[in-house]
From TrEMBL:
GO terms for molecular function: zinc ion binding. It comes from Zingiber officinale. CDD domains: PHD_MMD1_like (cd15556). It comes from the Eukaryota. This is Zinc finger PHD-type domain-containing protein. The keyword Cytoplasm does not apply. Residues 621-667 form the Zinc finger PHD-type domain. Keywords: Metal-binding, Transcription, Transcription regulation, Zinc, Zinc-finger. InterPro entries: MS1-like_ubiquitin (IPR057765), WHD_PTC1 (IPR059080), YbeY_CS (IPR020549), Zinc_finger_PHD-type_CS (IPR019786), Znf_MS1-like (IPR058054), Znf_PHD (IPR001965), Znf_PHD-finger (IPR019787).
Length: 710
């Protein structure tokens, strides 16, 4: 027998040879075989389409501590962006999706802050978390790495030894680099899904966030299709997206009626400061239906910049702008119009001819020209002045507005009519110009540049929508209602997409399998000891009660850390049924099953994994009505230890919390007892804010959510 030193050959993995199209994935092929729950589908998906990256502890055992497997396992899934620039024949750019499987048991961050603030804090800690990441075009995962501890050279993720000094990467350096990777805020996409199918969308960065080929719409559509394919159950997102420096959740709610993420089914999840879905919708309706006539009704001169800006866009629009929603919708429409000089820029005005005869339009033009001829010298006449002078002679007003738009470039004796946009007064101005003038060559109403549109959009946003900078106006009651509505829209940041709602009532597409939603209760523990969402089980139609017990045991042991010693004892309401009884005879092809089981041995060591909120047992009872952590800044009363929002206590978010804080309830009790209020020496966190308290816990959700859409 001949022996050589070459390594043994490994069996080839079945990985998709041709990358999927990023804009249409998964199509008709990518989702084949993914009929089970997320915990099973993710493994199948990675085995079929993922390309594993070499993990440090596997290739360099000497550099890793004594662990059974690495903290992070990484796969790359290649995609191709078809027609990225809209030109045929150009090569399609490649995009790689990185899927990182995080072993929570070995992670430095056990608990999830996103679950904590979205209402899932009572869920048990899952054993696995899956990170879905698309890196920025300017930085690829294979090219980024950790610095060599000896010479400082940047090492690739796939290299285990420095090429300059032959120094081997240490496990600690690898772990530090991995943590930095997960906290990188430049990712185009970063989503987390726990093994139980509950996930969080942390980041979406489109063109404004550094993407070269993909828009925010492209990335969100891909994420939505990926979640559907893998049977993700619920996904939360904290909407703090920005558009041109403005809070997009406020701007989009006013223009469309729901957040930007609502285009993909994300709805109101949990509102900060005890806000409800009804109060959110009422705030949307109140603010978006505010009449523009309130701001234009004043007759005093000089007119304000706000009045001039509103009047400008009312005059430019082909449709009557009545409300704030109309105004901002029109500005957003102009931002998506073709650039100045484009042929389609004049399309909107062409169809208006059918409303009046040619003779009516010509007569209106002649009237406007007559007033312009009466102007002495080369003076400019504003749109408002010209309209006021002509309104009695030209009826109806819609005909006059149309005439003022199409009269630009009209030839008259010894010249033509020209128009310009006055940046200072925010108005359009007209005058008769000699034929040899440069301005005479402009045949249509001047279009605003993109920079001017963005500037005006931000000015109107600050004046009408932003509660911090909202301009004062009358009636006072109307402004107060608008101010409160704007604050509510900004406070509603937590959105949830329920992917599992249609799954609950659908029959399995495969006639040879059946689907059961399994509820588990623990023996020898109170009912509120643990809160478990039901788990989906997909099994053959011929499965028996014995098979069901086996699958339930495996599913919960693999999903939750606290269930590592879990065993099923019996089916509730079917205690007398034999283990060989077919499941289908009891529940049909779909249904709900209640399982009773127990965790063998001493479960004390696993108690820290009972809830995603961690070991701290806080009590929230704020004056706004909040009863749980909502992600806003809080502080604890030094007497009773109950948490309250700093904002509800009259402390601005920009201010530091006080050294000592006593809530109103404790203050009134102390006054009745005739005792001075003060902190008790009982170990309560005197003067500590919840942001500070959180830093003392290991957590998985401390990833900054910076999102720019576009």
């Amino acid at each position: 027998m001949v022996v050589n030193d070459r390594p043994q050959k490994r069996a080839k993995r079945r990985v998709t040879a041709t990358p999927f199209d990023f804009l249409t994935f998964p199509g008709d092929v990518g989702a084949v075989g993914l009929d089970g729950p997320f915990r099973e589908n993710i493994r199948i998906f990675l085995s079929l389409h993922g390309r594993p990256l070499a993990a440090l502890p596997i290739l360099a055992p000497s550099a890793a501590p004594s662990v059974d497997r690495p903290h992070l396992l990484t796969w790359r899934v290649p995609f191709r962006v078809s027609s990225a620039d809209g030109r045929e024949g150009t090569p399609a750019p490649d995009v790689e999706l990185y899927v990182l499987e995080e072993d929570v048991l070995q992670s430095k961050s056990i608990y999830c802050d996103q679950c904590r603030v979205v209402g899932w804090s009572d869920h048990p800690v899952c054993g696995k978390r899956y990170h879905f990441i698309i890196r920025n075009d300017k930085s690829s995962l294979s090219g980024a790495g950790v610095a060599c501890t000896r010479c400082g050279a940047l090492l690739s993720y796939s290299n285990l030894r420095c090429l300059s000094c032959s120094c081997e990467i240490t496990y600690d350096s690898y772990e530090s680099w991995a943590c930095l990777l997960l906290q990188d805020y430049t990712h185009l996409l970063h989503g987390i899904v726990h093994a139980n199918g509950y996930g969080h969308l942390l980041r979406v960065n489109g063109r404004e966030g550094g993407s070269k080929y993909l828009t925010g719409f492209n990335i969100m559509s891909f994420w939505d299709r990926l979640c559907k394919m893998l049977h993700v159950r619920k996904v939360s997102v904290m909407d703090i997206s920005k558009k041109h420096g403005m809070d997009y959740r406020l701007l989009h709610a006013v223009t469309v009626g729901h957040p930007w993420y609502g285009n993909w089914g994300y709805k109101f999840g949990t509102g900060s400061f005890a806000l409800t879905a009804e109060s959110y919708q009422k705030a949307v309706d109140t603010l978006s239906s505010l009449q523009l006539s309130i701001f234009l009704s004043g007759t005093r001169f000089p007119r304000t910049q706000l009045q001039n800006t509103i009047s400008l866009y009312c005059s430019l629009s082909d449709c009557q702008l009545l409300t704030i929603r109309d105004l901002f919708c029109y500005l957003m429409q102009l931002l998506h119009f073709p650039p100045p000089g484009h042929k389609s820029a004049e399309v909107a005005a062409v169809g208006a001819l059918c409303a009046w005869s040619r003779d009516q339009v010509d007569l209106a033009k002649a009237t406007v020209i007559k007033f312009l001829r009466a102007v002495v010298g080369p003076q400019w006449v504003t749109w408002r002045a010209l309209r006021r002078a002509s309104c009695h002679a030209i009826k109806p007003p819609e005909l006059l507005d149309y005439c003022l738009k199409v009269i630009v470039g009209e030839q008259v004796s010894n010249g033509s009519i020209v128009a310009r946009y006055n940046l200072d007064s925010k108005t359009i101005e007209y005058r008769l110009e000699a034929t040899n003038s440069q301005l005479a060559a402009t045949p249509c109403l001047p279009r605003l540049s993109r920079g001017q549109l963005v500037h005006d959009l931000r000015f109107l946003y600050d004046s009408l929508l932003n509660p911090i900078t909202m301009q004062p106006y009358r009636p006072k009651t109307v402004r107060e209602a608008a101010l409160n509505s704007a604050f509510k829209l900004l406070d509603c940041k937590q959105l949830i997409r329920h992917y599992d709602e249609p799954v609950l009532n659908l029959l399995p597409t495969n006639p040879f399998v059946m689907a059961l939603w399994c509820h588990v209760e623990l023996v020898d523990y109170p009912d509120d000891y643990i809160v478990l969402p039901p788990e989906l089980l997909v099994m053959p139609v011929e499965a028996t009660i014995f098979d069901l017990k086996k699958m339930v045991t495996k599913a919960f042991q693999e999903t939750y850390l606290i269930f590592q010693r879990f065993k099923v004892e019996q089916l509730v309401n079917y205690e007398d049924a034999s283990d060989v009884t077919p499941i289908k005879t009891l529940f049909g092809s779909r249904g709900m099953v209640q399982i009773r089981g127990r965790c063998d041995g001493n479960n004390q060591n696993l108690g820290q994994y009972r809830k995603e909120r961690g070991l701290d047992n806080w009590i929230v009872d704020c004056s706004c009505g909040a009863k749980d952590d909502d992600g806003e800044r809080m502080m604890a009363c030094d007497v009773c230890g109950v948490w309250h929002h700093t904002r509800c206590a009259g402390i601005d978010d920009s201010e530091d919390p006080p050294a000592r804080f006593v809530c109103e309830k404790c203050t009134s009790i102390c006054k009745r007892r005739g005792k001075a209020s003060g902190g008790l020496e009982n170990g309560n966190p005197i003067g500590r804010c919840q942001d500070e308290i959180r830093s003392s816990f290991a957590r998985a959700g401390s990833f900054e959510c910076l999102t720019t859409v576009g």
